[in-house]
Amino acid sequence: MTKSKYVKIDDKVLYKIGNKKIGLDTLIFNMQSAHNCYCDKTKQCPFGKSGNGKCYALRNEKLYKNTLEYRERQNEYWEKSTINKILLDLRNIIAKYPQIKYIRFNESGDMSGYTDLKRLITIAETFPQITVYTYTHNLKLFVEFGKIELPKNLIINGSGFKWVNNYKSVPKGTIPQDGLKCKGNCRECNLCKIAHGKTIYEEIF
Question: Is residue 134 part of a domain?
Fold first, then answer.
């Protein structure tokens, strides 16, 4: 099991490297907490507070007070910092931890609009040697801006719809025989980190 390493910015813990499913080659950041998730508020995600409550990020925030506080601190940093500040911080982190090959956005929360999308594009363009990847339930954002050409190193997995890829949660036993199945361990699989345009299935029910 990979033990997470937490990274401080201005004496506040704001980034994390690795977790029990993601290796130490991946920097992790959340734009929002699950309690404050835009796609839950807009009822675009069926798994949040307004849905069936099966969101794993929401569960962790209910179980661990520090988790919610950490993600709310990340949200404040994301919303109040300029993009230049964020780019500088990322540059310093990548220089200190040269093993980083990926930046994973949003274990919890989601993109709330074009500003978030544009920031991801800018981050990917600034660090072409890094693969930036995320997942989104924000179908409204895709409908409006999905035709924008993304940097090759920015992989957006639509949740239930295809952006770059389609990441689809399905009941157990319903994955097509030839379907791509989520292994539940990102250290052993890169399906969400490459642009293949196919559906990745996850059994969660």
Answer: yes
> Residues 58-116: pLDDT tens digits?
999 999 989 999 999 999 999 999 999 999 999 999 999 999 999 999 999 999 999 99
On the 0-12 / 13-18 / 19+ scale of CB atoms within 10 A, 75 is middle
Residue 145 within any structural domain of the chain: yes
φ, ψ of residue 180 in degrees (nearest 5): -85, 120
- Residue 29, strand partner residues: 105
Place of tokens 């639509």: 158
SS3 45: coil
List alpha helices for the chain, DSSP H: 38-41, 56-63, 65-80, 83-96, 114-126, 139-145
Instruction: With respect to residue 182, please indicate whether it lies within any of the assigned structural domains.
Output: no
The DSSP-derived string for 124-182 is: HHH-TTSEEEEEE--HHHHHHHTTSPPPTTEEEEEESS-SSEEEEEE-TT-S-TT-EE-
Give the number of domains in the chain: 1
Domain that holds residue 114: 5-160
Dist. CA 35–CA 19, nearest whole Å: 21
Q: Which of 9, 198, 181 is nearest to 92 (CA)?
A: 9
Q: Say if 199 falls within a structural domain.
A: no
Note if the pTM is more than 0.85.
yes
Contact 156, 150 (CB under 8 A): yes
Q: Which two tokens stand for residue 175?
A: 């994955």
